[in-house]
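hiii so my PI (J.) wants the whole complex modelled not just the main chain, which honestly fair. so below is everything: two entries, each one labled with what it is. i double checked the lines twice but i was tired so who knows lol
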Amino acid sequence: MALETLIESLPSLFDGLGVTLLLTAFSIILGTILGILLATGRSYASKPIAYLILLYEKVLRGIPLLVLLFLIYFGLPQVGINLDAFTAAVIGLGLRSAAYQAQIYRGAINSIPEGQIHAAYSLGMNKLKAIRHVIMPQMLRLSIPGWSNEFTILLKDTSICFGIGVIELMRQGRYIQVRDPGLVLVVYLLIALMFFILVFSANKTLRYVEKKYQMAGYQTEAHR
Amino acid sequence: MTMLEVKDIYKSYGDVHILNGVSFTMKKDETKVIIGPSGTGKSTLLRCINQLSPPDKGQVWLNGEEITNPKSNINKLREKIGFVFQDFNLFNHLTALRNVSIGLEKVKKIEKEAAYKRAMEELTRVGLAAQAAQYPAQLSGGQKQRVGIARALAMDPDLILFDEPTSALDPELIGDVLDVMKSLCGKVAMLVVTHEMGFARNVADEIIFMEGGVIVEQGSPKEMFTNAKMARTREFLGRIGALYGDEEGG
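here's the output for the full assembly
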């Protein structure tokens, strides 16, 4: 009986998994684009802009994700901004991830010797070209390890969007739990396993990408 | 005809006065060597010329255009002024070939194929054709610096500024870099900050001795080494000669 319910429930779990993946994909894209802009701005824009970015990072990193999601989903309608749960979740996850990712990119930018910018200028590149052709390609390569970390955190934190009613993996699990409380342990173990497999394979893939795009001289492991 | 004119350059960092009114001129394809004690503002002077650190006061003119004028297009002017750095500053994510071609591709907007071809010619000129596909981390210091020179040459500059190009190199690697520089003599104007007295003596059309942010004396190598007017110049050349050796003679 219980097993039957479980098997019947599996498709809904996979639906939830699909939503979780979409949530992760959209919010990591938002977080990455915004994070790169923030980091570049903080390093190369004028002082007031750099300061505003700093403020943004501090605030977004200082608020619990659930609070941020509640603010966006339940709070914003009071000022006339109505978002569906999924969109609110993507925005919340993406904005917060951007604040953390900006730190990663800024660290990478700081590790590129300043002389390379001078060399770019002395070839006649303007600031934008120097950033695009000299800083950006190195920054992205150097950021892969930190980005992998942020990616897996984001992936796992999608489960918090349960709190604003996104019907993702956790919410589907909760539905099964309500229908058949006897399955609670199995269902959440199953969900845990799904997350674990996702994180594990993401890490493997990103490690491969990291190695593939490694710059000569920046190998992170000693040759054995 | 005067190609570069440096007029009364002043530069301070905070309260520290680095340059206190430096003026000199350079003709087309001339080689000038700047010598002087550390902290005298030699490197700062080079950076003032291509505006990497704009001077506080004074003017720099290249081919009749004022570089120091805020209205002039500094990026366009910098294409005409190569810069070779003490610590190379190669782009670590690019091969030797692309380090040389990137300026052609992204600044001069030359097509990839043509840019690579030109870059290969420059690498061949500095003796590094075989290293074209290697990354900076895979090159020796001397090779890196020769890539740096090739990178500057590829842009067809009127003038190349060399900021102590051999100071970061192991002694046995210095020769290769100096040989490349010698081979450029008379083909492009070079302004070289260096402690290599052999190079100064044999290659320079004129030596400029700087101290305390001003030019103390300038003249042909012969005058400077055998007949310097200022006691300070004689003292410096004597000391540096003993330290670095001018075994190449003159």
